[in-house]
Automatic annotation (TrEMBL):
Its cofactor is Fe cation. Residues 8-20 have a biased composition (Basic and acidic residues). PANTHER family: PHYTANOYL-COA DIOXYGENASE, PHYTANOYL-COA DIOXYGENASE DOMAIN CONTAINING 1. Residues 1-20 are annotated as: Disordered. The lineage of its organism: Eukaryota, Metazoa, Spiralia, Lophotrochozoa, Mollusca. InterPro entries: Phytyl_CoA_dOase-like (IPR008775). This is Uncharacterized protein. It comes from Batillaria attramentaria.
């Protein structure tokens, strides 16, 4: 009788620490450019797996993204109201309360907002291609920079399980080719992010093994994969009590982190929605890891540091809906369906099923 343990597609013994630790730090640009970080902060990214940059963005660089979020919520409210799903448009509420009120009347509205966000408005594009942000990313990746198609707008509604994300490594959501690619994630809150409203928590230095630990799916009544703390200790030498760091980020700041570092977002127990953007970068020519569904787009090259960016691959594809189609080809994804699916669900052992997994084919 065989005692071989079943191997799931996401599992891999390979490790590439040199791609993610201090050995991956590129030569720093000879030219001084606006926004660049001091060398000790660049080193922290590679040594700790993350670095917080406070007071980076000017208000005028973030206000358009806030306005785009307001427009998204307004569109969602009008769609739900027109369809008879809600009776009130809640226009009297602002950006940090309105979606909460809609969610109370139509549970799952937050999921719909995430799906709707896949349209990538101009404000998010401007933030993603911000020259000062790219100058910092160049310090971490080198001069050839590509945007990864897996970007996310996160409206973290108070007391909402759908936006409380458990421990995971971002690479665990992508196909296995991403295990050999350093991706830099820029996490940008659109208000002061703190422990009360659900800021990020990192397992410092958990990226140094250069490998993806074994995840499972799915966490509670969500579509998220999860990484057990005992598995983190066994595979990544992480002691959560010692290494977990709660990372507040003020409005105007951001945290840059590696796709290999274990992290989670804490519950939002405040009265305000914690809006944030995840924007991802990697070296041009490396695999995006999105199952060949959407390719990355070139943001900057050594030969042409200020190219005209071709956003078309992301504009013509709502990446959330593309992911759903990949695992449920027959699904027409009616707009008011508040479930979520994606290729990551088939990578890992399914230890908990729910309404999201029920629609996998």
């Amino acid at each position: 009788m065989s005692t071989t343990t079943k191997k799931y597609p996401g599992e891999a013994e390979e490790a590439h620490p040199e791609i993610f630790d201090i050995r991956a730090m590129p030569p720093q640009p000879a030219e001084k450019k606006p926004g660049q970080l001091p060398e000790n902060m660049v080193r922290q990214f590679f040594e700790e797996g993350y670095v917080v940059v406070e007071s980076f963005f000017k208000p005028e660089e973030l206000e358009p993204s806030r306005a785009a979020c307001e427009e998204l919520v307004d569109d969602l409210a009008n769609m739900l109201h027109k369809a008879g799903k809600i009776k009130n448009l809640y226009k009297e509420y602002g950006l940090f309360q309105r979606l909460t009120q809609i969610e109370k009347e139509f549970p799952g509205a937050t999921v719909l907002a995430i799906k709707l966000s896949g349209r990538l408005p101009q404000a998010y594009r401007d933030l993603w291609s911000n020259p000062r942000l790219l100058n910092v990313v160049e310090q971490l990746l080198g001069p050839d920079i590509m945007a990864n198609p897996v970007w996310t707008l996160r409206p973290k509604v108070p007391q909402d399980e759908n936006t409380t994300v458990p421990w995971h490594q971002d690479a665990g959501y992508l196909d296995n080719r991403a295990y050999e690619v350093l991706q830099v994630v820029a996490w940008i809150p659109l208000l002061d992010a703190n422990k009360e409203n659900g800021c990020m928590e990192f397992a410092a230095r958990g990226h140094l093994k250069g490998k993806v630990a074994t995840h499972q799916c799915c966490w509670r009544d969500t579509w998220y994969i999860m990484l057990d703390e005992k598995e983190m200790e066994k595979s990544l030498d992480v002691d959560v009590k010692r290494d977990a760091k709660v990372i507040p980020v003020p409005y105007g700041g951001l945290v840059l982190f590696s796709n290999m570092i274990p992290h989670r977002s804490l519950p939002n127990v405040s009265n305000d929605i914690r809006w944030s953007l995840d924007l991802r970068f990697q070296r041009t020519g490396t695999d995006a890891g999105f199952n060949n569904l959407i390719e990355g787009i070139v943001m900057r090259t050594k030969e042409n540091p200020n190219p005209t960016i071709d956003w078309e691959p992301l504009l013509k594809n709502n990446r959330h809906l593309v992911g759903i189609k990949a695992v449920s080809p027959e699904a027409d994804d009616p707009f008011f369906d508040t479930t979520f699916q994606g290729p990551w669900m088939k990578k890992w052992e399914m230890v908990h099923t729910n309404r999201h997994t029920a629609k996998l084919t």
